[in-house]
Amino acid sequence: MTRCAKRALCFVLSILLLLSPLTAFAFDYPDGIDPSCAQSAISSTDTLAVNAVPALTGKTLSELLGGAVYTDEVLSSFVIMLYTSLADYSAALRLLGIDVSPASVASGLDSSPQVKDVLANSVDWNSVRLDGVSWGVNGDATAFANCFGAALRPLAPILSLLMCEGEMTVLNVTLKGGRGYETVVRPLLIELGCPHAPGYEEYRSLAEQNPDTMAANLVLSVFSLIDLAAVQPAAVLCRALPVLAAYLTDGSLDSLAQELIEPLSTKISLFGIADIKGPGLDSLLSFMSAPDAAFNADTVTDSLMSLAGEHGLTLERPDFGALAAVRGDSSAAYVMIMLYLIKTLRNNRQTLLTSAVSGGDPGMAGGVIDRLFAMSDDKLLAQLVGLFTADSGTALEHQWTAAPFTAETVSFTGNLGREQLDRVVDGMDDLISGIIAENGSYGSLSELLGARIYSDSTLTALINAVGDMLSQDGGGQSAADAAPLLRMLGIPATADEFGAYLINSGYVTAGRTISSYGFSAQTIYWGIIPGSRDSFRTALSTVLMPFRGVLEALLANSTIDIFGAIHIGGTNGYNTAVIPLFEALGIPDAAIKTYSEYVAGKGTSLIVTDVVDPVLALIDIVIESPVYTALGILPNALRFISTGGLKQCIDNLISPFSAMADEYGFDLSAITELTGKLDGLDVNSVVKELLASSETDITLPDVDLNRLSGMGTLVYRNSRRTYNAQPVTFDYVEADRAAEMMAVLRVLASILQDPRNSSITDAFMNSGEDGNQMFSSFGGEIGAQMSEMSQDELIEWLYKLFFRERATSDATDQAYIPTIIYTAPKKKADLTEPLIAVTIVLIVAVIVLYSNRGTLGDMIEKRRDKRAAASPDTRYKKRKRKKQAEPVYHTTNPRATGRDRNANG
Fold first, then answer.
1. 479-502: per-residue pLDDT in tens?
2. Which of 195, 594, 743, 800 is 20–30 Å from 21 (CA)?
3. CA dihedral for 786, 788, 792, 796, sign (positive or negative)
């Protein structure tokens, strides 16, 4: 009995110790850790384990432990091991009236028919095979305990003798047992911290009603500790493991085992001394004798190392003596256990990652672990405890540094001055709207842009872009690598998870499409009414809502809460990054909330919508007057980009992480690489790359588009931003639209006069089979003629060509409407491209018109017929009345023409 019980207990202890490694180091608090913060870290570790495991595995810690312990396989292994050991003492046990054959055990297993059938047909325990045979446990602790109790029913007499006050007759001698459960077993269970350890009277009463409960209740008591460990893993281990270590190192377990069997061992020995003979008595005496040092540290360590090897793990031998020395000091125990765990992870890095990461490629997770393991064990633990115990801190105040402003000028031609170009700018949007209306597909430019921007396709393109970012990181790793991080932040990590979120949010079709086809689905039905700002806003806000927690931390100084255990202080990014960006783009003040107004929305959807709404306000303005608005925004936006404004925004947003990067080993290289590219971004290179990636063969001359950022007047405005809770001002470039238009015309002239573009201009301008018949009246090679003109002459010629007006300084017709002579293209241009394309708007117009020159003549004739039907004054007044009837944002500095404009500056 004793040897068998000890083997069984060693097996149980080895499993517990394998799940909870012990330190091999002498105890000493590392630098940066004291008992107080270690105690706090225990609670945080419990919270982290309980919350992180479901997010990372899809199962609770309780389910994982239950799935590992409360199984048919574990029960089969334990029963076979126990009875195989007892078979060596079958003769002695028969003296006690106990039959441990497979058939005897099978007789009590009516609740497990598959097992019963196998055992009933087995000759001995060496031939028993229970692989794949069901006990009916199914991960349930109570079912496991009941089956275990039933399997140990043949041992009920001796269990009653040892645990309760049962009696047993051996060789006509009646033996009375002790109260081993009360004096030995229960005190040990309580010291280990088992929540469920019934009192002796309850235990004895249940045993009298059903002998199976003696073994079942012992198992349930141990399982109650496992259940508690599923809720408080660190706290349980820091209490229980030093107790076990003390029992192993000082021989206490051997003493307890000897105390448990002492009544029987003494009496049976006395019978032997009295020369009471009987069959099997020598075997019985051997069975009841307790071999020395069966329950010691070496025995358990050997079992532990063996089990680890079976799982492909490499462990260092634990120092039970050091752990026993801190019995009752959970803070010190925590440090020891965590240091041993760190060393175990370090020694088994590749094995653990390969088993944990799909595809066997550690990818991003491996890189993070490598950076962490570059630290010493003490340093790494100190950093971990520091993360657990860090205060959220306060937001950093970032003072913006105004970039220098250099005013740029542009020379007008002798016959084409500011006044004419002002009229062109003022009338361009109405002109384009008229052409679009005449083409019949849309009633106006606003209607066309609205239908294109506020649409299912726009939101789908946004989803595709997000999907591209999720599918690959900078190292080309799969989205599975980023999934744990996204889940930590409460963000759906996969297409299935995001699809389920959308379905629950009411976007059933979109959710099902993304779940089925992933983030790259090209056609997704969102139910957005084309041109409906409200339906687009609702859908966009829903898509962004999972990011609310991150936005709240980065923009409104909330804490980034990772599984409730790690708290990273946020920053006031709305004040120091979002507002400056909004103001640089010329979004009206009325559309931008102040920082105090924004943070008032914490905990609500306003954290998302208060960022979305200003962007939509800008889009509304662009939709209403795209050319005029773009030219008004362009100088300040270019200045903001080219002088590092975007970089400063991102730096301010990531400031909490930047401060922690060096200390905790976070890798921000992907972000810093991006911000490095944004620092002094060269717009010229960007435009050239756009042209190079297009289907055109246009060569851009060596012009500095950054000069557009200086075409205006530097003014100071009251900002919606604050610094140290005080209002501030910011500088803004009020655009000189006429100068910008002239600058663009000069770029266009340079392109047309560049010999490298001669084939394009000739094909566009010249008559003939591949040319445009409307230019046949010019005759000759137009490209050659343009190359002989001065730049001013070519600009004035282009002005006449485009707008059919006299390029003279006395053109003051109040009914002036510039009239471009080109037709609308067959294919509607995608007008949702970045605003930076406006810098070469006329260039792009020429390219598009060239590609659609076949319909040019028809449009010209249609335009002439309609112009003949109404005077210029009448047409202008009708358009003006229509414009005034629509709601607009009013600038604080309306133009001298009296027209209200929808953009600042």
1. 445 566 677 777 887 888 899 999
2. 195
3. negative
